[in-house]
């Protein structure tokens, strides 16, 4: 049902936790299923220097949060605006149609983070 990459990120999530002195903290939720993804990030010189996440939800939501935290580390903020739910799903080897909301949740959290970097 789930790809090896989804299961790997679920069983061994990367960057779990909180950053005490984070530059930005955001929380995204899906009101339909109740999944929540929270990101803590430290921004320096236009890049994400450090990022941590916590997720409460289904297997794909945890996997998407883990993948996102890994993928955005040290990346320039300008390129992160291009990340889409489809790109996350593809990077994880695909998601079942009923689980696409998890990739949308991850991108929603990222968009909130990026919005706070300019505001």
What does this structure look like?
The chain has 119 residues and is an alpha+beta fold. The chain has a single domain, classed as Sufe protein. Chain: A (Alpha-Beta Complex), CATH 3.90.1010.10.
**Mean pLDDT score:** 93
Task: Name the shape in a single word.
Answer: globular
Q: Percent of residues in helical segments? A: 40-55%
The strand count comes to 3
Just give the CATH class.
Alpha Beta
- Give the total of domains: 1
Query: Looking across the biggest beta sheet, what order are the strands in?
Result: 1-2-3
Low-confidence stretches: none
Indicate the CATH architecture: Alpha-Beta Complex
The N- to C-terminal Cα distance equals 40 Å
Give the count of helical stretches: 5
Largest sheet: 3 strands, antiparallel
CATH topology description: Sufe protein. Chain: A
H/E element sequence = HEEEHHHH
How would you classify the quaternary structure? single chain
User: What would you call the structural class?
Assistant: alpha+beta
Provide the gyration radius in Å.
Answer: 13 Å
Write the layout of secondary structure elements.
Elements: H1 4-11, E1 24-29, E2 36-44, E3 47-56, H2 59-72, H3 77-80, H4 85-91, H5 100-118
Antiparallel strand pairs: 1-2, 2-3
Summarize the structure.
The chain is of the alpha+beta class. It is built from 5 helices and 3 strands.
Sum up the structure in keywords.
119 residues; globular; Sufe protein. Chain: A; 3-stranded antiparallel β-sheet; 44% helix; 5 helices; 3 strands; alpha+beta
């Amino acid at each position: 049902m789930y790809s090896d990459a989804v299961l790997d990120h679920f069983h061994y999530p990367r960057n779990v936790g909180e950053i005490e002195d984070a530059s930005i903290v955001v929380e995204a939720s899906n009101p339909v299923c109740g999944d929540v993804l929270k990101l803590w990030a430290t921004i320096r010189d236009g890049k994400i220097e450090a990022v941590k996440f916590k997720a409460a939800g289904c297997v794909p939501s945890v996997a998407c949060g883990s993948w996102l935290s890994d993928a955005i580390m040290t990346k320039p903020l300008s390129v992160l605006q291009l990340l889409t739910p489809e790109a996350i799903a593809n990077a994880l080897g695909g998601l079942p149609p009923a689980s696409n909301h998890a990739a949308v949740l991850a991108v929603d959290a990222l968009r909130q983070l990026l919005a706070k970097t300019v505001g």
